[in-house]
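Sequence design from tokenized structure. All designs in this work follow the same two-part layout: the structure record, then the generated sequence. An example of the structure record is given first.
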């Protein structure tokens, strides 16, 4: 197999990941609005553990569990930051 077709495929996958990350972030902002209206905190440790546990359980590799955990912990952290900034703007 040649390198360029593989790189083009990686580029397409990267764009898909980017779209999905932004879609997830938009949903997190909507969730943040609901949390604020219901008087709930931004950080829900139990929910985040559940999300991570479900993803780790479904991970079939080749990425190792630790890598998946770190990636999704960062995604969750960035989504919390978005929610916090949105709350601060509305305060």
């Amino acid at each position: 197999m040649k390198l360029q077709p593989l790189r083009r495929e990686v580029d397409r996958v990267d764009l898909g990941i980017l779209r999905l990350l932004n879609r997830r972030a938009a949903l997190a902002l909507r969730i943040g609005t609901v949390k604020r209206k219901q008087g709930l905190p931004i950080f829900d440790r139990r929910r985040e553990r559940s999300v991570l546990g479900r993803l780790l359980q479904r991970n079939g590799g080749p990425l190792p569990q630790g890598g998946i955990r770190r990636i999704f912990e960062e995604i969750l952290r960035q989504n919390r930051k978005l929610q916090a900034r949105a709350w601060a703007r509305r305060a």
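Residues 56 and 64 are 9 Å apart (CA to CA). We note this feature because it recurs in several other targets discussed in the main text.
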